[in-house]
């Protein structure tokens, strides 16, 4: 077991090594700084995004080339968590220069090793183009993607090795836990949380300090701290990135929470679909136990705390707090009514708090830097930063962390680098299946919990999907409803049946069979589900429909009245046609058509029989003359 | 007790701290509708019928589980709530087999009732795709029709939590959710014990007993057949509920009159056989106690309990009394003793029983239940089926005179009639065993320690210098708890009475259904049991061994209790079953 | 009701059963151990047929139906094994009008299973899928990664013969 003093020794030994990888005024200063055993640190992203684009191979090849060049004593290769710019993966960054190589290919490795690592010549050709300005190599932080970001929850992601507890300790890791256990009472810890204004990052934005206060106030022989790592929104991966890049911060924060409320046992409920996160959490828990940072009598304070991992098994509803607890208890993950709230009767009927991964990732720094520091960031009612998974029709897809109050426009246009192919921007979707679509006219609204709700969406866990003119808003609403229908647990009637009925109406509309009365019915169902469903899944399931109805009703009407899909997405409302001027009469389309809908003589313009056309698009794909179009 | 003050619809109300809005409203005379809620059994807040508005709450809250708090302002019947409930009902109907006219529950369906109350004027308002399920008729006693299931899960909760059986549960999820058994097995393939408690709590027509009323009508119409009926003690304590009498009305006389008008050749009483059971079982007990037989002896009247024991405690089947249940003893005597006396070929006798029980339908098909080489009982119907039969035969039940049972198998004692309540068999057996052991007349016949609706009861009696320790359990969850203690050696008894249904037969799975909102606020078991205890008290003869008809039976036919003949006709065997 | 018991004969080995019993012994006293046990059981057997769920039920005292209810709630639990070769027939509109329904029926007949099941020898499992975007090749099916287009019912025998 490590004492506070021993921890300090590790921290002092490691902090130079870790700091070596961060911003420096100049390259000279960087080179001169303390770098531990190795002069050059190569950080390769080992997050899920980069892993699936082949970063494992890159790392193996790096090791091989470094050995070949005899650099093993000088250069180290570190597998980190997510850097954020997933669209550019696999990603690696070389310190002290801070050279940022993107979309690295295996065959580029020998050159990078021989030229850069051995001789010190950065291979500019292979750098992310935004970091190259003439002869200069710009630090990553100056690129558009990173410039406006402010990393609190993600501060260690892409900086430290998540599998090495010493590196975490080098970033003042577990110092907050030490401070809490030796210098603060539980009440003081809760007060700090209250003063910081931190609100839950999992969706609803309930003040974290309040949650802790309620649970602390309830007497019980056993209490629990749970971490919600069952991130299930399609397109969201903030929590995964934290777990993969900085697992110890979650463990440390849970222990702090345990101390504050009087719990000795924690559970992390993590999706089984996140194997890398699970593996790193297992490693981290083992290391923390070895160091005595989990277990009995931590830092000799008399405080016991341990953590167990529980894997989800593929049910989105388990992200709901009571469902998550029901699932940990070994049941079907169905929500239960509140009250009783988990702070009184939660897991195994004992007082329990549930915090989301990103929420927890903020906590050690709040303890170390003080609540005022945290409260100085963000807006009046939403403090700190928020991580978003930026996706959809945007150039820089990836993970971004911005101070609360940043506008959507800044995120999409500046950080996200705008819309690909010069398309027109239509809307941004936040909050996943519980959220809504925000139209361009609201793009300058500062993002915080309350503003997003006011404009018909919600913060949610942080998925942010950008949509352009080619996105059909009715189709999007249908997509999310399909998701909630699949994921409804089936316990309460409004959600079980109501989501299904809403989906059926949307299907009707996208097939051109809708009526204006259907819109009323849709709104009626939406209102019913919002106020009558048992849990948040059902209560928020109508949001994608309501927000699109609010801002894009004209698209619904176009589907219903004109039988047209303005974005050209809904198959049943499209007609494939042949431009007679462009058609050369090659007959390829007629041969390819699965239903014999195309006819015409050789070398004469062909025509599509709309009665027989299945709208599969095979002809359009195959036409060599661009003669086939849809409208 | 601490109380809190709140307002409900503007009315000032105080309620004990910790009570729910539903309870506080009920106490104030305001009914909030429920479909899934069963007090202490199914408190899951799933059906959303009980939603109410609470000032300051973000959403509607479920009154069935939401506790009251000081200063709370509750509204239970605002336009928003009424429309919410109506829409939830319409959503349920959109995935419900709306064949109300041909539904067994038409007229006492809780869903139908609420639709009427909330003015559901268009049952196809939210029409859309619906699920279709095949009927499960694999069990001997009942049918599950999931097309009428509203997923309230009362049946699941009763099966798992009350009975500790757990052979039905919730499968799949979302719109595809349904109630069924593991791997979609038919109920008949599982270790279902046929207790029928799931039927008793089902709010709709999704669960119902296999109905044999028409078979009875056919048998009666057949001139070749001699149709004899017996009625269990609890039937008379609940049948009246089907005809508008308040719960707790004894309708024995009208029931007998009705059966006679339906056309049964003889209307007998299972109570007669209950007295016979006591003779045999008390004899068995004394023999086991005196000769070092297997103890504790456990009663065998409840076929649901018997099947449970065979599945879940197969190593304890030797503790079971070898006595047939009163139903089967009765059937055996009808086809042997009575047939001989009347000179009727037992093959031409149709032996019908009216029972508060669905497991009796399973019991009649068991092995070694055929004393005359033909089944002891041919048709077992429930109290509910009897009500249907009475209606079908056009009998004006309420207008009937009170009539008495036929002789000789209609004569019974007070000891027999209390068989229907938990502890009744024990009390009846004690009355006979004690007098047999001591040879003296009991000063006080009432063994109050074993009365009452408590799940597990214990008592100890000094009889002729012996300590007799007894226990009574009703409901199979309680039975399990008790037996685990016996098995572990923690508790030791000479004699245990176990009834499969909580509260005993008065609350059997075949009794008239009591809607959730009545059940939640009424002591159904206690009220029905009180009929039996009043009946006992009113009897001149209250001890089984004093029943003259039974004495005559032994004289004329059986000889002694436990005789060879008695064993051939009145005792049976058990099997060991697996859990599925 | 159709029982969901797998048509594939259970091929669990003694070793697998011993491993499962060890897992249950190790976990069963933990709170809420059912899901971890089921997850480990699926790691051992690849799926959770009735034989495996029975073992879990017998060892933990948890009713079989409750285990089944949990297994059918979560998407990651399988009741049927996957074949070595996974056949997926596109029943999207384009393929359907070109006769993929006939292909699907023929496969069910040939293999003696219905969709979602696996052949008793563990060789093939069969599923229907939505459009895979190869409408020009309709009707289409895939076997593992391989795509077969412009299928005719009479091709089926030859194609299946390639997978032994």
TrEMBL record, chain C:
Superkingdom in the source lineage: Bacteria
InterPro entries in UniProt: NADP_DH_HndA-like, NuoE-like, NuoE_dom, NuoE_N, Thioredoxin-like_sf
Keywords: 2Fe-2S, Iron, Iron-sulfur, Metal-binding
Names of required cofactors: [2Fe-2S] cluster
Record flagged with keyword Metal-binding: yes
Metal-binding keyword on record: yes
Protein family: Belongs to the complex I 24 kDa subunit family.
Protein name per its UniProtKB record: NAD(P)H-dependent oxidoreductase subunit E
Organism: Dorea ammoniilytica
């Amino acid at each position: 077991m490590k004492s506070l003093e021993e921890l300090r020794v590790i921290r002092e030994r490691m902090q130079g090594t870790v700091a070596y990888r961060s911003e420096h005024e100049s390259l000279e200063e960087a080179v001169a700084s303390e770098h531990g055993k190795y002069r050059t640190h190569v950080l390769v992203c080992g997050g899920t995004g980069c892993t699936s684009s082949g970063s494992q191979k890159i790392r193996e090849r790096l090791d091989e080339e470094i050995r070949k060049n005899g650099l093993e004593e000088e250069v180290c290769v570190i597998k980190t968590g997510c850097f954020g710019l997933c669209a550019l993966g696999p990603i690696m960054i070389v310190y002290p220069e801070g050279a940022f190589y993107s979309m690295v290919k295996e065959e580029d490795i020998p050159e990078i090793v021989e030229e850069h690592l051995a001789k010190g010549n950065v291979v500019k050709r292979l750098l992310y183009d935004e970091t190259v300005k003439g002869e200069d190599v710009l630090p990553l932080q100056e690129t558009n993607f990173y410039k406006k970001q402010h990393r609190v929850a993600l501060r260690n992601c892409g900086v430290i090795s998540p599998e090495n507890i010493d590196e975490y300790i080098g970033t003042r890791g577990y110092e907050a836990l030490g401070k809490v256990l030796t210098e603060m009472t539980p009440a003081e810890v809760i007060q700090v949380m209250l003063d910081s204004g931190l609100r839950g990052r999992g969706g609803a934005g309930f003040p974290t300090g309040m949650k802790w206060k309620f649970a602390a106030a309830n007497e019980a022989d056993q209490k629990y701290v749970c971490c919600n790592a069952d991130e299930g929104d399609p397109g969201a991966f903030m929590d995964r990135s934290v777990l993969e890049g900085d697992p110890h911060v979650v463990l440390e924060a849970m222990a702090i929470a345990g101390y504050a409320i009087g719990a000795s046992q924690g559970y992390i409920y993590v999706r089984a679909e996140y194997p890398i996160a699970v593996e790193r959490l297992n490693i981290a828990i083992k290391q923390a136990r070895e160091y005595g940072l989990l277990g009995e009598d931590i830092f000799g304070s008399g405080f016991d705390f341990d953590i167990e991992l529980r894997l989800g098994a593929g049910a989105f509803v388990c992200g709901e707090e009571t469902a998550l607890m029901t699932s940990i208890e070994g049941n079907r993950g169905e929500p239960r009514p509140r009250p009783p709230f988990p702070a009184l009767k939660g897991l195994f009927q004992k007082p329990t708090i549930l915090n989301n991964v990103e929420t927890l990732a903020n906590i050690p720094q709040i303890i170390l830097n003080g609540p005022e520091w945290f409260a100085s960031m963000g807006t009046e009612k939403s403090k700190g930063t928020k991580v978003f998974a930026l996706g959809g029709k945007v150039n820089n897809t990836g993970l971004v962390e911005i101070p609360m109050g940043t506008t959507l426009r800044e995120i999409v246009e500046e950080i996200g680098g705008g819309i690909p192919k010069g398309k027109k921007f239509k809307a941004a979707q936040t909050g996943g299946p519980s959220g809504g679509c925000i139209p361009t006219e609201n793009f300058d609204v500062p993002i915080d919990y309350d503003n997003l709700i006011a404009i018909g969406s919600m913060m949610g866990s942080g998925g942010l999907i950008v949509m352009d003119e080619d996105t059909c808003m009715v189709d999007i609403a249908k997509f999310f409803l399909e998701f909630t229908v699949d994921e409804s647990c089936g316990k309460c009637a409004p959600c079980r049946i109501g989501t299904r009925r809403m989906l059926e109406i949307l299907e009707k509309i996208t097939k051109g069979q809708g009526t204006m009365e259907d819109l009323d019915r849709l709104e009626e169902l939406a209102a019913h589900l919002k106020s009558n469903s048992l849990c948040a899944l059902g209560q928020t399931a109508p949001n994608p429909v309501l927000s699109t109805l609010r801002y894009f009703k004209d698209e619904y009407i176009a589907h219903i009245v004109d039988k047209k899909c303005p974005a050209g997405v809904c198959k049943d409302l499209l007609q494939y046609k042949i431009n007679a001027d462009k058609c050369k009469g090659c007959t390829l389309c007629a041969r390819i058509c699965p239903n014999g809908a195309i006819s015409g003589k050789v070398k004469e313009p062909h025509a599509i029989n709309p009665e027989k056309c299945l709208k599969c698009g095979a002809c359009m794909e195959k036409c060599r003359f661009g003669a086939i179009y849809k409208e | 007790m601490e109380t809190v003050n709140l307002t409900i619809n503007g009315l000032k109300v105080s309620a004990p701290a910790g009570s729910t809005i539903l309870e506080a409203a009920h106490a104030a005379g305001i009914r909030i509708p429920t479909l899934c809620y069963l007090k202490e059994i199914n408190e899951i807040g799933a059906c959303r019928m009980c939603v109410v508005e609470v000032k300051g709450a973000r959403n509607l809250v479920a009154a069935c589980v939401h506790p009251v708090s000081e200063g709370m302002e509750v509204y239970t019947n605002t336009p928003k709530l009424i429309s919410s409930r109506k829409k939830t009902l319409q959503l349920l109907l959109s995935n419900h087999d709306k064949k109300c006219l041909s539904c067994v529950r038409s007229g006492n369906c809780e869903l139908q009732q609420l639709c009427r109350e909330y003015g559901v004027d268009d049952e196809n308002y939210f029409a859309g795709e619906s699920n279709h399920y095949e009927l499960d008729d694999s069990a001997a006693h009942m049918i599950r029709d999931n097309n009428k299931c509203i997923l309230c899960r009362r049946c699941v909760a009763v099966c798992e939590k009350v009975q500790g059986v757990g052979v039905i549960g919730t499968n799949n999820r979302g719109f595809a959710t349904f109630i069924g058994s593991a791997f979609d097995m038919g109920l008949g393939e599982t270790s279902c014990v046929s207790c029928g408690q799931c039927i008793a709590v089902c709010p709709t027509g999704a669960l119902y007993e296999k109905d044999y009323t028409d078979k009875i009508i056919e048998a009666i119409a057949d001139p070749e057949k001699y149709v004899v009926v017996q009625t269990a003690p609890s039937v008379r304590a609940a049948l009246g509920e089907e005809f508008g009498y308040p719960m707790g009305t004894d309708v024995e006389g009208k029931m007998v009159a009705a059966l006679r008008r339906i056309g049964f050749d003889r209307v007998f009483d299972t109570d007669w056989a209950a007295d016979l059971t006591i003779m045999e079982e008390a004899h068995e007990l004394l023999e086991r106690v005196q000769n070092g037989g297997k103890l504790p002896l456990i009663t065998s009247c409840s076929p649901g309990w018997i099947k449970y024991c065979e599945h879940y405690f197969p190593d304890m089947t030797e503790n079971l009394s070898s006595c047939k249940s009163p139903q089967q003893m009765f059937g055996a005597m009808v086809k042997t003793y009575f047939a001989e006396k009347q000179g009727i070929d037992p093959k031409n006798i149709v032996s019908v029983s009216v029972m508060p029980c669905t497991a009796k339908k399973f019991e009649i098909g068991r092995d070694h239940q055929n004393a005359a080489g033909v089944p002891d009982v041919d048709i077992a119907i429930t109290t509910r089926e009897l009500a249907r039969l009475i209606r079908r035969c056009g009998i004006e039940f309420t207008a009937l005179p009170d009539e008495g049972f036929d002789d000789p198998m209609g004569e019974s004692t007070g000891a027999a009639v209390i068989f229907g309540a938990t502890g009744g068999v024990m009390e009846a057996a004690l009355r006979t065993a004690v007098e047999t052991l001591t040879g003296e007349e009991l000063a006080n016949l009432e063994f109050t320690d074993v009365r009452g609706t408590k799940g597990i009861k214990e008592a100890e009696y000094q009889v002729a210098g012996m300590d007799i320790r007894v226990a009574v359990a009703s409901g199979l969850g309680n039975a399990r708890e008790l037996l685990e203690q016996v098995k572990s050696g923690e508790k030791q008894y000479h004699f245990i009475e176990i009834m499969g249904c909580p509260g005993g037969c008065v609350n059997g799975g075949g009794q008239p259904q009591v809607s959730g909102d009545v059940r939640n606020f009424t002591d159904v078991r206690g009220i029905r049991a009180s009929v039996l205890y009043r009946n006992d008290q009113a009897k001149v003869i209250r001890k089984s061994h004093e029943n003259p008809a039974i004495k005559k039976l032994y004289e004329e036919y059986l000889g002694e209790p436990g005789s060879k003949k008695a064993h051939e006709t009145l005792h049976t065997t058990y099997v060991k079953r697996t859990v599925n | 009701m159709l029982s969901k018991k797998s048509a594939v004969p259970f091929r669990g080995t003694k070793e697998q059963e011993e491993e499962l019993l060890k897992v249950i012994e190790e976990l069963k006293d933990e709170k809420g151990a059912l899901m971890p046990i089921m997850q480990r059981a699926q790691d051992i057997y690849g799926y959770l047929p009735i034989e495996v769920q029975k073992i879990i039920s017998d060892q933990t005292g948890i009713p079989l139906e409750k285990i089944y209810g949990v297994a059918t709630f979560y998407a990651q639990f399988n009741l049927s094994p996957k074949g070595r070769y996974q056949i997926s027939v596109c029943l999207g509109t384009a393929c359907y009008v070109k006769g993929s329904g006939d292909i699907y029926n023929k496969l069910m007949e040939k293999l003696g299973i219905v969709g979602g099941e696996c052949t008793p020898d563990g060789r093939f499992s069969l599923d229907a899928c939505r459009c895979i975007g190869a409408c020009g090749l309709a009707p289409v099916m895939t076997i593992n990664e391989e795509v077969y287009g412009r299928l005719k019912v009479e091709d089926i025998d030859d194609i299946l013969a390639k997978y032994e």
